[in-house]
Write a structure and sequence with these properties.
Elements lengths: L1 E2 L3 H4 L17 E5 L2 H17 L11 H7 L7 E6 L11 H15 L1 H4 L3 E9 L6 E8 L12
Antiparallel strand pairs: 1-3, 2-4, 3-5, 4-5
Length: 151
């Protein structure tokens, strides 16, 4: 499943109805970076280059806000990986534990296998009915001949 994602849900800043609060401590946070800071890291240099020679009214002052307020772009993307369902891979079962091991192994080299997806949030949830992995990322490129480095 690919979608816009909910950072507050992934980070457990609130507990949804389908979450077992007694199992929240079983969740694994692999990566939890500030989205605005990652935008600065990825795009500030490119924005500076883009702004050179541009009229003030054409310059980008804050790329994060430009994308956030845009109608077509998304600030980030999310992919969710899950093996099986609550009938065959439920949390707390032998099969569910196997799913956790497989997902844990899968996530270890995800960034290396996907160098143009800058992962800033990665969470393995075991407090819902089936173990699953949320990976939040920003697609970007480097050394592109276009006007910016991303999206």
């Amino acid at each position: 499943m690919i979608g816009t994602g909910s950072l507050a849900h992934n980070r457990r800043e609130f507990i949804a109805e389908n979450v077992d609060s007694d199992r929240v401590q079983l969740n694994i946070c692999y990566q939890n970076e500030n989205l605005k800071e990652v935008y600065k890291e990825l795009f500030d240099e490119a924005v500076e280059r883009y702004n050179i020679g541009k009229r003030k009214d054409r310059q980008i002052t804050n790329y994060y806000e430009k994308i956030r307020q845009g109608k077509q772009e998304k600030l980030f993307h999310e992919v969710i990986f899950q093996i099986g369902n609550r009938e065959d891979m439920a949390v707390g079962t032998v099969e569910g534990d196997l799913a956790v091991k497989v997902l844990d192994e899968y996530v270890k080299d995800f960034q290396k296998r996907n160098p143009t997806l800058r992962v800033f949030g990665c969470y393995l949830h075991q407090d819902e009915s089936t173990p699953h992995l949320h990976i939040d990322f920003i697609p970007y490129v480097t050394d592109w001949k276009g006007k910016r480095n991303g999206h």
